[in-house]
Amino acid sequence: MDWNGQDGCYVIKIKMGQSEVGMKACFTDLITHMQANKFHVVDLFLKKALEVPIQKQLKVLIREIKQHGEEIDMINKENAGKKLPEINYVKLVRVFLKGDDYAEVVTECVKLNEKQEESKWQWHITDQTSFPFSVEVVGPKTTAEDVYKKVVQDISSIQATFRFKMKIQSKEIKKVKKAVEKLKKDISEITLDEDSNQVVCDATQSQIILVKKELAMYEDLSLSYDMSEDDYAALIYITNDDEWRSHVKQRYVKGKVIFDVEDSNDVSMVATCIKSKLEWLMQLAGTEVIPPSNHSTPLTDLLSEVEDTWPVMYCFLSFDRKRIIIKASSYEQAQQAKHMIEVNLGMVQQGGGRRNRKFASPDEVGPGPVSSPSSTSDLTIRGGTTFKTKEGIKIFVYSTGIGNLKVDTLVNAANRDLMHGGGIAYHISNAAGYQLDKECDDHVRVHGPLHVGTCYSSTAGNLPYKSIIHAVGPMWHSYPHNKKQQCLDDLRKTVVSALQKAESFRFTSIAIPSISCGIFGVPKELCAKEYYGAVIEYSRKSPSSSVREIHFIDKDRGMCRLIQETFEKEFGIKGQQM
Description:
Elements lengths: L1 E5 L2 E5 L6 H17 L4 E5 L8 H25 L13 E6 L1 H17 L6 E6 L16 H12 L6 E6 L5 H11 L6 E4 L4 E6 L1 H11 L6 E5 L2 H10 L9 E6 L2 E6 L5 H17 L1 E5 L9 H11 L3 E5 L6 E5 L2 H14 L17 H4 L16 E7 L5 E6 L9 E6 L8 H10 L1 H14 L7 E4 L8 E6 L11 H21 L4 E5 L10 H18 L7 E5 L3 H15 L4 E2 L1
Parallel strand pairs: 3-4, 4-5, 16-21, 17-19, 17-20, 20-21
Antiparallel strand pairs: 1-2, 6-8, 7-8, 9-11, 10-11, 12-14, 13-14, 15-16, 15-22, 18-19
Helix pairs in contact: 1-2, 14-15, 15-16
């Protein structure tokens, strides 16, 4: 703890402990020093610690202040007959938090404040963004109320400085550059970041109003997100009744959704709403159904019936309106809805379960590959890049379908029961045909469901590969909040297991579609990091493996770009173009 005094105020630098015991010791020292120096007010800027969350830090702080007050009360009682003055100099403790932390704990803090006896001591919590002042007052004050009035008086004349950012239309950069140079005469802390097309300034409210006025005609009121067609369809459907939708117009162009906001004052609000909705969508499980071309059931009625049956369920048509997408709070619920839809469309028999699955016979399948929205008759590579591990294993990342890849084996992102009910598994099952489904059924019936992180190899059926490796990745929502790292470890284990399975058959090349980032809900950026980690782990442990090529593929070009960027960052080199 370091104290630097100046003009009757002290700035306190505390090296906070990373445990509850360490923080308790710091707060005890702080209060002791305040009492010894007759300080009345202290401002604390707390931040998250590795082991002690903000809520816990506040409880430790309150406990220490309360204990201090009780100790002073005992001393005052002992000195009551001696006519000595009260000696509690600690009158006001203020805690400042960052906006996100403040939002998390403010409700709890209000309840705690209501329980305290304000006649003994006062404390309050405030948001750094809305109240960014730090004032320590030292003087012969006798009550917390007097001290607080003094603080309010001291800060009333201070003009707060706020960080302000404005996104600029790229075509207007030259004009904005001239405008910023002009504004610098009155606002010294204003800059134009041409890389991000942003004007950034630290200014007072009146100065910010001036900046907004001068640059309003150049402001970019659009918000852009890389997103797959299915994710876009889900976002638009699920937010249909949200209030923020009335403030925007949206369009989808080549893997990117762009929201045009009507008012600059709404940009931040809309961005927050979209971010919150996207994070929530990532937590939902999902699957899909491809209606038969000859169905007669009105799809709108069927989708409404599903949503009426389950309270937290979303059923809607895909971007191309050829598939029914199902989003639910759990994978099991999504599968129940899928079965209900398939029964109503006459795709499966009533009753469900593995024994009631309706398979096409070998004669019905025919000799050629079964077409699928995710398969391609010819190999089409979009924006591919290559990398190489130190041990010489080549890595390819590109966007394509599942048909006619130049590899020995293809990985299927499967579930434990090998039911192939949604995502890439559904398309592989459709394309491979009867024999693959039968082998998977027989395996589960004899050996039981697969465990997360394990693999099973079956025939490739009508697909042009030596085998299909069914790999069971983890589901994000199946792991409690404090076990998410275990989920990521299991994802890495799944990829390594698939590579080991390929090696056991002496295969030289393997294609791996994205595992666990779809209906299993693991955040895509975390998936990409684990794919890299799995490749490096496998390459180091198996330098002489038969597997010399690993192909990461995905129809979603946004996901491919994310994997490519992650690999470039982790390898420390830019991938070579294919």
